[in-house]
């Protein structure tokens, strides 16, 4: 048999299948965008990936003459946010429609591997008439896909709006205008902090994933582009900071854990001319979603084994995002704050160890107006981010909830230009 005949024989089932219009077509469809960001900052910032992912300005740092070392302009151009998505469809299973998503970008996972491909989303779905089961890596439940900031910046409002993608099992059920959701979540993008630094082991050693439950309501107006979506979310998490302690030269097994909760409420009002989004969050130990929280050592519960007790630190978050809904021109504004409330229990020693993401920050707030222009497959956008952070002055005394007595505020202004090409 010639190679040509063999090839035709192998391709025959495919050719016959493709000619049957009544048969559903399964496979993968690719989409995504190429994006280039051009940015300038008025001071040094805490912004991973060579300044791309802006979180907050660096604190005041004095030289021998009292000059602020972190006060100075810096710039960068980066296309690493460019991404590729593969949306997969296949035959039904268990009486459900099946689908999947594989999505990556070139953001890397650390500064050392920037420009390298990393996984953003990787999940499969089973969709029945009223219910859906998602398995894989997807947005953390606190990143609400029904209500999130539409910023030009890749930070999408972080560290004010929670930000993370994590492996999870998520089930949702829709009954009319109501939607119920439940999720069990492990950590991947940004783990919890502890004695060994950031690691997912603290959650894994608790032998219980993060648990979330939510309820949302969506009403559609007389015009198809008018809608109101609102909802509530509640979650709980337990981590284990240590498995052992060392007292002198002796090592003891310890039984320690940190329990924390999170709750959020949101409103998303969409009309023909404008969309208004508002979100409020109370969260404890949410460093794994880039919130300025963590936990503290509140005391020693066993002097022989060195076993410790802990309490999470909490923060209050409030933000709003307003934008016009024009197809060619769109103007928008994001504004919000994240304010620490300190530990939920008093500490025996105000100088005790604090674990978490930047426990020296008491509050972060941001105001960022933007302007977007769409033409064909291209988008050009401009945004100004004013981000201020209130830092604990070094060696500042703290109260019994871990909040510093003295603080100093610094601010950064970022000018951002972005160009997109969608495909």
Shape: globular
What order do the strands of the largest sheet run in, or round the barrel if closed? 1-5-6-7-8-9-10-11-12-15-16-18-19-21-22-23
Distance between the termini: 42 Å
Strand residue content: over 45%
Radius of gyration: 25 Å
**Mind describing the biggest β-sheet?**
16 strands, antiparallel, barrel
Number of strands: 23
Q: Give the mean pLDDT.
A: 93
Poorly predicted segments = 5-20
Provide the structure class.
mainly beta
- Compressed to H and E, one letter per element, the order equals HEEEEEEEEEEHEEEEEEEEEEEEE
Number of helical segments with 4 or more residues: 2
- Helical amount among residues, as a percent range? under 10%
Structure description:
- The structure is a single chain.
- A hairpin with a 3-residue loop joins strand 15 and strand 16 (274-284).
- 5% of the residues lie in helices and 54% in strands.
- The radius of gyration is 25 Å and the shape is globular.
- The longest helix has 16 residues, at 3-18.
- By secondary structure, the chain is mainly beta.
- The chain is built from 2 helices and 23 strands.
Could you write a compact summary of the structure shown?
With 423 residues, the protein is mainly β.
Write the layout of secondary structure elements.
Elements: H1 3-18, E1 27-41, E2 45-46, E3 56-57, E4 74-78, E5 83-93, E6 96-105, E7 118-127, E8 131-139, E9 165-175, E10 178-185, H2 201-204, E11 210-220, E12 227-239, E13 244-247, E14 250-253, E15 258-270, E16 274-284, E17 294-302, E18 307-324, E19 329-343, E20 354-356, E21 361-375, E22 378-392, E23 407-422
Antiparallel strand pairs: 1-4, 1-5, 1-23, 2-3, 5-6, 6-7, 7-8, 8-9, 9-10, 10-11, 11-12, 12-15, 13-14, 15-16, 16-18, 17-18, 17-20, 18-19, 19-21, 21-22, 22-23
